[in-house]
């Protein structure tokens, strides 16, 4: 590899792309020209009457031309030699295997296109594997790739603008600068030859900057792979092994190789790097501490407006006194300010009043929930119950009316719970009632109520008979679980 890989941040990796073009730019630009120029000639010939469409076609085909540049840079980077003619013959196969259809359709506006291109072309990944690889690369490098796209797009525009001005200034019949600026700002270059020249200038700017774009994205990709997989360590050991193989054999060659490998490993361990970086970190902290001192330096900017326009001529006649109008305006402004404050106070008072009423009504509705009269068909009004619930249930059991006895005990339990503050709603089911009782009731009463509900469900829904002795036991136990209700019922009778 002709490039030295080491841990770098994303911006250093982008700078490394410029060095890559400096070292291998000749073949990269030749390959770009070999693929771009025929396409540009065909596009200009096809859209002779409207050359702007030719430029749009060339701009849209950038991902195809990028693959030529990346193929050259990837081979040259690893010490290979590229034949331009052979590369152009293999271009359809290279483009097809690297997902050119997606690159020219749904991925055409990918702002991190330069970072993702090696995934499709060099790794030849697609589908789920490519999406996983791209997500991994984007974690720390997507921001730099997006900024690269944004900056080079602006540089391409500025380069085309500067090139067109330079051409206009060098022509024997010079075009006024204001006309060039107007055409650029409006996006119009006239018709015929002028528009064609504008398209040619745009194509030249595209050809100058697009290989840089591909190279910077490629080095950003290499840097991210280095961080993820430790390519630099692997390359160091390969270089070490090649030097040892090339050197003459000595009795201690194996021991020397092992010693050098261990030394390289210890040098690359995190602890050594931390110790080596300790001194610069302390120096950086001291520099920041000095710069934070207000006595070190103080910058202040103040802005004020100064009228630099023409001055009104002095009047030689009698001056017009408008002080009375100024006083009226001042008085009106004071009245308007006072009226605005009064209106604001009234609006705030009106708002606070209605907000307080709303909160009070909401609190009242929450604190006093409406007690339902019926729950799943049961009449749970207190006046619907007999004076002595347990005695009435026992009488129903003796008459053989077990279903009515369990229904009476169930309704009475619900009424008793609501008297104690338990909240049931109109749409509650038997299970909802058990959950609400479980949240606050004592364990003996909860156990009794759960057994009572289960017996009622077996009888009412499962059509399984309940023994009269079990129903009578439920009635006697209800009297012990709700003693206040029984006492209250006996008091009027006494």
Number of helices: 20
Strand content: under 5%
- What is the terminal separation in angstroms? 108 Å
- Rg over CA atoms: 44 Å
What would the average pLDDT be, to the nearest integer? 76
Secondary structure tally: strands: 2
Weakly predicted, low-confidence segments: 249-255, 265-277, 485-494
What series of H and E elements makes up the topology? HHHHHHHHHHHHHHEEHHHHHH
Strand order of the largest sheet: 1-2
Structural class: mainly alpha
**Biggest β-sheet, characterized?**
2 strands, antiparallel
Classify the helix fraction into a percent range. Answer: over 70%
> How does the overall form come out from the CA principal axes?
elongated
Task: Give a quick rundown of the structure.
The chain has 494 residues and is mainly alpha-helical.
Protein topology:
Layout: H1 10-46, H2 51-60, H3 62-77, H4 84-89, H5 91-97, H6 100-103, H7 113-121, H8 127-170, H9 177-186, H10 193-229, H11 231-246, H12 253-268, H13 270-292, H14 323-367, E1 374-375, E2 378-379, H15 389-398, H16 402-419, H17 430-440, H18 443-460, H19 468-481, H20 483-493
Antiparallel strand pairs: 1-2
Helix pairs in contact: 1-2, 1-3, 1-10, 2-10, 3-7, 3-10, 7-8, 7-10, 8-10, 11-12, 15-16, 15-19, 16-18, 16-19, 17-18, 18-19
């Amino acid at each position: 590899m002709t490039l030295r890989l080491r841990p770098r941040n994303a911006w250093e990796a982008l700078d490394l792309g410029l060095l890559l073009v400096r070292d291998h730019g000749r073949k990269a630009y030749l390959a770009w020209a070999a693929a771009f120029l025929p396409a540009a000639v065909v596009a200009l010939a096809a859209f002779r009457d409207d050359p702007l469409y030719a430029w749009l076609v060339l701009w849209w085909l950038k991902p195809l031309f990028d693959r030529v540049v990346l193929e050259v840079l990837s081979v040259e980077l690893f010490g290979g030699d590229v034949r331009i003619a052979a590369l152009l013959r293999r271009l359809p196969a290279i483009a097809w295997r690297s997902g050119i259809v997606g690159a020219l359709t749904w991925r055409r506006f990918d702002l991190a296109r330069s970072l993702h291109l090696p995934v499709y072309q060099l790794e030849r990944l697609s589908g789920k594997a490519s999406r996983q690889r791209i997500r991994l690369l984007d974690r720390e490098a997507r921001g730099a790739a997006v900024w690269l796209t944004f900056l080079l797009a602006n540089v391409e525009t500025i380069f085309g603008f500067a090139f067109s001005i330079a051409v206009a200034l060098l022509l024997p019949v010079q075009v006024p600068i204001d006309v060039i600026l107007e055409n650029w700002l409006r996006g119009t270059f006239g018709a015929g030859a002028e528009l064609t020249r504008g398209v040619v200038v745009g194509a030249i700017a595209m050809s100058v900057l697009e290989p840089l774009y591909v190279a910077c994205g490629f080095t950003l990709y290499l840097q991210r792979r280095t961080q993820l997989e430790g390519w630099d360590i692997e390359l160091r050991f390969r270089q070490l092994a090649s030097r040892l193989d090339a050197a003459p054999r000595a009795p201690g060659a194996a021991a020397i190789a092992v010693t050098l490998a261990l030394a390289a490993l210890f040098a690359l361990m995190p602890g050594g790097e931390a110790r080596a970086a300790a001194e610069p970190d302390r120096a950086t902290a001291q520099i920041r501490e000095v710069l934070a001192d207000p006595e070190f330096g103080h910058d202040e900017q103040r802005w004020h407006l100064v009228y630099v326009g023409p001055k009104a001529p002095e009047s030689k006649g009698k001056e017009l006194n408008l002080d009375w109008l100024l006083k009226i305006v001042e008085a009106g402004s004071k009245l308007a300010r006072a009226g605005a404050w009064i209106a604001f106070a009234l609006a705030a008072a009106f708002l606070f009043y209605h907000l307080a009423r709303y909160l009070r009504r909401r609190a009242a509705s929450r604190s006093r929930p409406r007690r339902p009269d019926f729950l799943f068909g049961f009449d749970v009004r207190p006046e619907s119950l007999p004076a002595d619930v347990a005695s009435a249930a026992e009488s129903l059991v003796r008459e053989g009316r077990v279903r009515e006895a369990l229904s009476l005990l169930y309704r009475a339990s619900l009424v008793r719970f609501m008297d104690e503050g338990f909240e049931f709603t109109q749409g509650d089911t038997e299970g909802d009632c058990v959950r609400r009782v479980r949240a606050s009731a004592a364990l003996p009463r909860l156990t009794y109520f759960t057994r009572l509900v289960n017996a009622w469900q077996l009888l009412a829904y499962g059509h399984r008979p309940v023994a009269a002795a079990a129903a009578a036991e439920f009635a006697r136990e209800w009297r012990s679980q709700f003693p206040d209700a029984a006492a209250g019922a006996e008091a009027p009778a006494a």
